Write the structure tokens for this entry.
Amino acid sequence: MHELNRRQFLAAGAVGATGLAVENKQRALRAVEKPWNGGVERSLRRFRDPLPTACPGCDARCALVAFRDGDRAVQVAPNPAAGRLGAACPRAYQMLEACYDPERVLRPLARVGARGEGRWVEIPWGEALGRVAKALAADPASAYVDLGRPDPLAGPLLERLGVTRIAEHDASRAWTAREVQRAVYGAELGRPDLARARTVLLVGARPLDQGACFAPFARDLVAARERGVRVVALGPYGGVTGSLASEWVPVRPGTEGLVLLGLVRVLLSEGWLNREAFGRVVASAPEELLEALLPYTPEFVEQASGLPANRLVKLARGFSAEGPGLCLVDASGTHGAGALEGAAAVLNAVRGDPEEAGVRLARAPEWVPRLTPTLPRARAVKDLLAGGERASLVLAYRSNPVYWSPRSEAVRRVFADEGRVGLLVAFDTHRTETAELADLVLPAAADLECWNLFGGYQGDGRPYAVLQQPVTPRAPEARALKAPDTPLEALFDGPGRGPLGQARQLGDVLLELLALLEHPARAEFPFADAGSYLQERLAAVPEVVAGLLGDGTWVGAEPAYPWAAGAGFATPSGKLEVAGLLVHRVPRDLKALAGEDFALVILSHPELGAGFANTRWGREIRFENPVYLNPEAAARLGLEAGDRVRLRTQVGEATARVRLVQGLHPQAAALAEDFGHWAGGVAATARNAGAGGEGEPLLVSRKGFLTNPLGAVRPAPRPAAAPWWHRHGPGVSVSALSPFASDERGAQTWRDLRVTIHPV
């Protein structure tokens, strides 16, 4: 339905009063001729009320459209106007459930008593911001900000506030891999283009199971397979990706880097490359690289990995001879990130420009906001754990460092220590593990309630942008009408879009902190909120604004990519720099795996994205966290499917049920992350909300004018009934089992983990 502002309403009223009788008479005459479903289109359009937005759940930033009914979003779907930019994975649908979760925090809370007691009192936003501003002003250099969601104002405003310790969830997990990519290519890598490759070699990468660009990457890989592209998946765990692949090549855990180096050695020694084209894009000559790779003979690789030497040679020949080959690795959280990324770069250059093979650098237009994290989370938390650092302020925005950090039980004790952490602020949608220990819990805007702008370059080289915008009204219409401070115009225009309750997004809060601190940068940012900041930023690119305000997306007409073909890579030599990277050693803990010892493969189910721990939609699909074992390994231990086993690492132990799968190396065991929550809500913890039949009451009532006309102060209860899968429990927490294990760059190597398994 078309919305009228006050002036349009008055003008329409003056004309409408004159012709009301005539219109009613004509309507009556037409009634008998009107088809039975004549009013359906108008009603459905009002019900749909579509508005484009985007999902910030991973690096893909998929374009969505949200359908609304009155003051509530009711469904999300891929944006049909966005073309290939529109996609949706389970995280997109969890956005909807998380937004209207009855356990969501909607007002600022301050703890009463000691940290972790779970006693809270509601406070005004002004009081909460005053406490944050005081802690920030006292020592901004020791403040620590942990981000789980992007915000367009976070980068520039945190810099002006003097915050130098900034971590980001996804960047922390892929820290070393991204640093190696910057050293090799001069930039981080983005989602590859699979349109040209005839062979795709996946080493440790499982795009159909997990990944930074899950939905669009999975879609591209399926399409490539349908075109006849040969897909080879190499690693200890096959998963759904291995099932789709033309061939799954199981290797011993921790040896993927050795196999890749052996593959490169065979290619170079046999001369299966275009030497002239290779020399134009790689800084090191083939002879230099071959000398560094002399130890990695096919026989040595076979002994270390279990991959037969003749099969290694066959893989190398096929990669070179079957057409353009593209090697994709997932080196996040491994000790061998340098070898994996360096060897993949060499393989992608055997025919010349790797961008022609489908490699894509993660760049964005200059007008797209960006934030550069300064350290991985594990490094900051480890300093706190060791007692060498004290944080005057820890602000976790849509992030949960207490749960996601290694040795999470020890980290929990550190965050509860006021001598280590001065002011702990959980700026989140739910009372997560970090929030349960916090001094302040600030209500954060949900993903359907935020402003953001994302952009980059498509596979065909054209720039694109996607707008994330709020799709929910700030308040129900009835509440807006009865509010005494509602402007007259708003009675006709309706309430603006924004977060429910008193929730806010990070950029809006940072603007208020600048004002409270009387910071001179406030004049530099004279914006009311993040939305007005984006509007001002986009004013310089009017050709982009029209598309974003219409369909929520914009795609440039002319390609502006690739860059390296003309300008070279952004490295000192202008070429790929892999010298010194082609060395790999199997992690010490994984060298001798036998008996009850296994390498733990950590799975990341897309249904359980970070930030959606309390969504039943995902938990009903992944309601249990079994430990996956190869039938051969299970038989060796005398185990059958369904048996309970005890998992033990050097820092913790847990019990789980066995599930048998063929697509797993006999020396590996697989376990999923994002289980084992002890806070966050009923779905996250898989238990009753509280003692008794009513459950713990919400601190904020959602009773509106129509449902609660007397305005009675009666909080809405939390869901009291345990979810149907409560008998399985919350599952095993991988974080609680993981020790702190840092690589040379200080990042956590969370994948190289040894676990002992024996029957209970």
